[in-house]
Amino acid sequence: MKKIIYAWAGLLTVSLPSLAGDEAIVGMNPLAVTFFLLFVVATLGITYWAAKRSRTATEFYAAGRSISGFQNGLALAGDYMSAASFLGIAGMVATKGYDGLIYSIGFLVGWPVIMFLIAEPLRNLGKYTFADVVAYRLQLKPIKILAALGSIAVVILYLIAQMVGSGKLIQLVFGIPYEFAVVIIGALMITYVLFGGMLATTWVQIIKAVLLLGGATIMTVWTLVKFGFSPESLFQSVKETAGEKWLQPGGLVSNPIDAISLGLALMFGTAGLPHILMRFYTVRDAKEARKSVFFATGFIGYFYILTFVIGFGAVVLVGLEKITSIGKGGNMAAPLLAQALGGDAFLGFIAAVAFATILAVVAGLTLAGASALSHDLYVGVFRKVNLQRNRKLK
Amino acid sequence: MNRDELKKILTDPDFQNLMKKVSSVSFIFTAAILFVYYSFILLLAYGKEFLGQPLSEGSATTVGIPIGIGVIVLAWVLTGLYVYWANKNYDPMVKQLREKFRR
């Protein structure tokens, strides 16, 4: 499973840097800057509130198990709906057509599998990290080292891609140098994690999920209005502008082996992301944990159906030429569609939502990395604090 | 909890029954979702023409679009069914067992 996790992280870092290569589509957009600042101020406020409440380890790593099932569902969905899903999948549908949907389906199907096979046993042990759980059954020290290193490797690879993306986005909207932008993002997420812990990152994630679902819904409805609420007439226009091939499989995976290998990687890769597994511990009991997965699957599935419409909407309303001229991977398809629909104001809003998305995911990842380092490696291995207790349990 | 108590629980027929039920239910659900997903992937690999044909004569919507969206919806429905089962049956059974051994 570890191997698959590595492969998955590799896949993400390979596919995401294309985000960084994108040309500027906006200069300084005052509205977007306003939305950015509002989001940052609101989330810092939450962090301050959370910092006052986080006193024990359970409060720091698991938000005191105080989050409700519905809230945790939103936060789980928030962790899942990264910029890669929003910008990446909409872009893939725009540039490759039907095959973009394969990614959405593969991402989503990982969910029920987590639920049926690993959520329950993980939850029952009542621990904080994946390493804790494995160490229960096996020899403590080597397993903790291995699992923690695995988590950290995934987190670092994933973080780099997200940092690059967000730095680029800030550079576009604020018009400040890229290096400076990355430092700002880094400082912000350290603040969230250091002072607020899991409680703050969960609430940041919830706000972001609501913003993202809202933004994507507005875009989809707006797009459908242009086609008289008929998906068929949208597809008809796609057929006329981009060709019949866009609505048929084959644009991305051309042979059977590709399809099967991609299918495997997508599904099992998502099932093991460390910052997602951590979320099973933030709720009161198993019942709430299960409910949260149900809500999360619903939100994510709904969101992926939206990105499908957004991608095809961009093909027709923005045009393929413009999308590919701005970014090879088509990552700017969604922002460009926003601009085509509602001008610079809506573009500013969507850019801010994308930024919030990256920031929230980065904060969640940093927390997962921090838990692996401090909780598993430092406490569990270097200081051997847990050793006595674990021996008793065996 | 000492060794004897643990052994008593592990060999208890009610406990074994519960474990059997849980693992068979999660096996059935996992098998169902894997079947749906891999049927889709195999269709993608070997049945491109089928997925690519128009839904009805002259329409732009292809057969693959409702099928793809159907897989997403089905994954959600299956999760819902499992959650419903677990919250309705599994938890009360665990509670019952707990009370049994508390005495």
Report on this structure.
The complex is a heterodimer of chains A (394) and B (103). Chain A has 394 residues and is mainly alpha-helical. Chain A has one domain: Sodium/glucose cotransporter (Up-down Bundle), CATH 1.20.1730. Chain A is 80% helix and 0% strand. Chain A is globular and about 60 Å long. With 103 residues, chain B is mainly alpha-helical. Helix content of chain B is 84%, strand content 0%. Chain B contains four helices and no strands. In chain B, α2 packs antiparallel against α4. The longest helix of chain B has 39 residues. Chains A and B meet through α6, α10, α11 and α13 of A and α2, α3 and α4 of B.
What oligomeric state do the depicted chains represent? heterodimer
For the record, the count of structural domains of chain A works out to: 1
**Low-confidence runs of chain A (pLDDT<50, min 5 residues)?**
1-26, 386-394
State the name of the first-level CATH class of chain A.
Mainly Alpha
Instruction: Write down the secondary-structure element order of chain A.
Output: HHHHHHHHHHHHHHHH
Strand content of chain B: under 5%
Report the biggest beta sheet of chain B as strand number plus sense, adding barrel if it closes. Answer: none
Average residue pLDDT of chain A: 77
* Major protein interface: A-B, 46 and 38 residues
Helix/strand-derived category of chain A reads mainly alpha
- CATH fold annotation of chain A: Sodium/glucose cotransporter
What are the main properties of this structure?
heterodimer; A: 394 residues; mainly alpha; Sodium/glucose cotransporter; globular; disordered N terminus; disordered C terminus; B: 103 residues; 4 helices
